[in-house]
Recover the amino acids of this structure.
């Protein structure tokens, strides 16, 4: 799951409370809002967290199967309402962002640290499975994803797989982006490429990647086969705060990446990978 520009004033969410820390979490189609702690007193509840950029508070009351309250942040106060539903599910994360027919998935952006132009068509990525993650240093769900991808890449990079991070930042300033992304790279010990793709706003990311139906959620992760075809697109990110949902995602990710990596490759590629 992830962060993104809200599509409307109404967003489907899943709220779950637990009896041990974290006390609960909130998930929506863009992703979870990370670890929350709180209290329940009689029919009232309060869950709060600080994601590094803004404090968040969910509070309200439960009456029977109905919930009403408000979401409070540093910038706004919004009403929330819901009905208890043990079978509630979020939209399929693989269905929210699609590839446009007839538009090739291609890009060239500068390396965030060296400024050297990098393209998906470069020899480094040829005949390899490539994970392209659309991210930003400001995005907490992107950081949760990096915490998974970084060690996974180090353990699997000799199998013919690469990862490219496309970073959209608050300023269209390479120096600003470099400073922010150096911190991210160091913190998560990232060994894969990170490119500076420009400013994060309502229009530029979608214009910069025209093969996608839209870019509005961070992270959005594209899985590219060895032959250059896009296998699937995952929108958002469910992080470790979601417990069993995160564990299920990690298992699914590992299984599906094994399948992509094991797809047939040319004899030349096999020789190169076995060196």
């Amino acid at each position: 799951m992830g962060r993104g520009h809200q599509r409307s004033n109404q967003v489907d969410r899943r709220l779950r409370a637990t009896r041990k820390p974290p006390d609960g979490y909130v998930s929506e189609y863009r992703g979870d809002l990370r670890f929350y702690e709180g209290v329940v007193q009689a029919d009232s509840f309060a869950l709060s967290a600080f994601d590094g950029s803004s404090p968040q508070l969910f509070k309200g009351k439960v009456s029977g199967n109905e919930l009403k309250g408000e979401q409070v942040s540093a910038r706004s106060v919004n009403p929330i309402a819901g009905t208890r539903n043990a079978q509630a599910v979020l939209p399929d994360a693989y269905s929210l962002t699609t590839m446009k027919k007839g538009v090739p998935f291609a890009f060239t952006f500068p390396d965030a640290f060296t400024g050297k132009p990098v393209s998906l068509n470069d020899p480094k990525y040829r005949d390899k499975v490539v994970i392209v993650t659309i991210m930003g240093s400001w995005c907490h769900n992107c950081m949760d994803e990096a915490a998974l991808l970084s060690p996974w890449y180090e353990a699997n990079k000799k199998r013919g797989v690469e990862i490219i991070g496309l970073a959209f930042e608050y300023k269209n300033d390479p120096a600003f982006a470099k400073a922010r992304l150096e911190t991210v790279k160091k913190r998560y010990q990232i060994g894969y490429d990170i490119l500076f793709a420009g400013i994060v706003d309502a229009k530029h990311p979608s214009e910069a990647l025209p093969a996608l139906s839209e870019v509005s959620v961070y992270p959005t992760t594209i899985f590219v086969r060895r032959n250059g075809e896009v296998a699937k697109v995952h929108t958002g990110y469910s992080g470790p705060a979601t417990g069993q949902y995160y564990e299920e995602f990690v298992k699914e990710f590992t299984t599906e990446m094994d399948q992509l990596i094991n797809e047939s490759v040319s004899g030349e590629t096999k020789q190169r990978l076995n060196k």
About this structure: The first strand starts at residue 3 and ends at 4. The chain has two domains: 3-83, 108-273. The longest helix spans residues 244-261.
